[in-house]
């Protein structure tokens, strides 16, 4: 049974890291991108792709936290790994809210999209900086 759990952990962790990196890269490109890529048709396509990465991140994150709590990590505030997980959850909620706003936005102004992607990029960057600080 432990071998199944370890494979599940490894696969979920790989998917989690890949989807986080992909979303982080997309948000970086659209935060600092020029007006050629900030056309509404391009942005809407990448918003849908980004949303799939965010949903993958959330699903695998829930699975990873479930596995952590099964192995005895019940109180997430008691150690740095748990604190970084709580911080990642808060950053995920911010990004989920902002990407939902971006998906329903119908205005088409590139500066609004740029600001929304900027909020998502900076919140992810801040979460990763805090995560590295807490876990090293």
How is this structure best summarized?
This protein is mostly helical and 136 residues long.
Structure characteristics:
mainly alpha; 136 residues
**What structural category arises from helix and sheet content?**
mainly alpha
Sketch the topology as an H/E string, one letter per element. Answer: HHHH
Distance between the termini: 31 Å
Number of helices: 4
Summed over residues and divided by their number, the pLDDT gives a mean of 88
Instruction: Work out the strand percent.
Output: under 5%
Shape: elongated
Sheet having the most strands: none
**Rg:** 16 Å
Describe the structure.
This protein has 136 residues and is an all-alpha fold. It contains four helices and no strands. It has helices spanning 2-31, 40-70, 80-104, 110-135. The longest helix has 31 residues, at 40-70. The model has no long low-confidence stretch (mean pLDDT 88).
How is this fold's topology laid out?
Elements lengths: L1 H30 L8 H31 L9 H25 L5 H26 L1
């Amino acid at each position: 049974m432990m071998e199944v759990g370890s494979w599940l952990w490894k696969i979920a962790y790989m998917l989690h890291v890949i989807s986080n990196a992909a979303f982080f890269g997309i948000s970086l490109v659209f935060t600092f991108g020029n007006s050629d890529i900030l056309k509404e048709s391009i942005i809407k396509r990448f918003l849908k792709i980004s949303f799939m990465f965010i949903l993958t991140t959330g699903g695998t994150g829930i699975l990873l936290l479930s596995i952590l709590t099964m192995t005895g990590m019940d109180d997430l505030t008691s150690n740095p790994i748990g604190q970084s997980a709580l911080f990642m959850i808060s950053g995920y909620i911010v990004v989920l809210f902002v990407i939902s706003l971006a998906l329903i936005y119908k205005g088409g102004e590139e500066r609004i999209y740029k600001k929304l992607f900027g909020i998502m990029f900076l919140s992810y960057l801040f979460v990763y900086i805090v995560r590295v600080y807490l876990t090293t």
